[in-house]
Design brief:
Blueprint (H helix, E strand, L loop, with lengths): L9 H7 L18 E2 L10 E7 L2 H16 L5 E6 L5 H10 L2 E4 L8 H7 L21 E5 L3 E3 L13 E4 L7 E8 L3 H14 L6 H8 L18 E2 H6 L1 H7 L5 E3 L10 E3 L4 E3 L12 H23 L11 H13 L14 H9 L11 H12 L1
Helix pairs in contact: 2-3, 2-9, 3-9
Length: about 375
């Protein structure tokens, strides 16, 4: 029937149809349709920043991200998609920062083979990110992973079209799906789910699916290549330090890539220091200035909201407790003092070069950011 009148647009067609004949609008919802009532905000927009938290830890990251967007005066709405396992106090805290908090079902690729190649089995649940295309009450959105931090206003991203993203530092012909511009669409969402079912993901996560689905990103339209300053990763900082020294001051979004996240560390509020995550096998690859910035924002703006939400219920604040400090001090005093360690063995420049090229980088020692920066300064003088 519809193919008989191709010269009419949708508005003309609907005026000709009686109300009972108008095609219904069917919303495809794979997740829980419940949405918490958004708080009243002064900004009105049909465009939104969207993030995702599938557990309480990532919810804390989402809180810091949302607060960083607020601090830099975004005029766009803020939306958080949360998994059903996120605790109610965390949801309450998210509601105080975001305009909309939606509970969605957690999707998992189950692709253990490809995820094993990346040594990141946790990335399977990132398929849940595909729910963001169901937010059809917004005309355009910018998705941001919960492990990103905004350093300045980035509302100009909404001038870009779907699918705009920055290159991935590991393989620049692929885009990194931590920050991307998209247009919500039930049709696109349905096609993405069908594509997942037929093709899977080459990396077991959402980034593999999205790069395969939007497969012309690398070649078709350079305007859809976001500058790297919108998705700056610490991995790239260390792999090309001179470029960071030249352009890093223009960074607008920091992305804490890797298995160890800012919330995996602890914070000493008295000294204003971030403490390492000793149980992690990964070396510290997070730029110390940005890591400290994350914890300062969490301390000043997010922690008070969490304390109010949890009330008398204890929760892990991420702070180094004073009692732990005192106990540690007592333990150190009681222990016999060890003899001085032998001086570290000097590694030749050639051996350091070989280790670097093999990916064996001593981030906390000779190859620390401060040492590399000092060496660069000596060349540039």
């Amino acid at each position: 029937m519809w193919s008989l009148i191709p010269v009419l647009n949708c508005a003309q067609l609907l005026r000709l149809c009686p109300s009972q004949c108008k095609p219904p609008v069917v919303r495809i919802t794979t997740g829980d349709p419940r949405a918490d009532s958004p708080p009243q905000r002064s900004t009105m927009s049909d465009e939104a920043f969207v993030t995702l938290a599938t557990n309480d830890s990532y919810a804390r990251g989402a809180m810091v991200l949302g607060q960083s967007l607020r601090n830099h005066n975004t005029t766009k709405k803020l939306v958080a998609l949360v998994g059903p396992h996120v605790a109610e106090p965390c949801r309450g805290t998210l509601r105080s920062i975001f305009d909309e908090v939606c509970v969605v079902d957690v999707m998992d690729s189950g692709d253990t083979a490809h995820l094993a190649l990346m040594k990141r089995p946790d990335l399977g649940v990132t398929f849940t990110k595909l729910h963001c295309w169901t937010l059809t009450h917004y005309s355009k959105c910018v998705f941001m992973d919960a492990d990103t931090l905004v350093l300045s206003n980035i509302d100009e991203l909404f001038e870009r079209e779907e699918l705009s993203a920055a290159p991935d530092p590991g393989w620049p012909d692929c885009f990194n799906s931590g920050v991307f511009v998209f247009r919500p669409s039930d049709e696109t969402h349905e096609k993405l789910l069908a594509f997942c079912g037929e093709n899977g993901s080459f990396d077991g996560g959402d980034q593999g699916v999205l790069n395969s689905f939007f497969d012309t990103w690398a070649t078709a339209d350079i305007s859809k290549h976001l500058p790297f300053i919108y998705n700056l990763s610490s991995i790239a900082i260390y792999s090309y330090l001179p470029a960071f020294k030249q352009y890093g001051h223009d960074a607008k979004v920091v992305h804490f890539l890797g298995k160890v996240k800012p919330w995996n560390y602890s914070y000493d509020a008295q000294k204003g220091e971030v403490r390492g995550h000793s149980t992690s096998p990964d070396p510290c690859q997070l730029h110390p200035d940005y890591l400290l910035m994350w914890w300062q924002l969490y301390t000043e703006s997010v922690l008070p909201l969490l304390q109010h939400a949890y009330g008398d219920t204890p929760f892990n604040s991420g702070f180094v407790q004073e009692s732990q400090n005192a106990k540690l001090h007592e333990d150190v005093q009681e222990r016999p003092q060890p003899s001085a360690p032998p001086p570290p063995q000097k590694v030749s420049s050639e051996e350091r070069k070989q280790r670097w090229e093999a990916g064996q980088i001593d981030y906390m020692g000779d190859d620390s950011f401060a040492n590399i920066e000092r060496k660069l300064d000596s060349f540039l003088k």
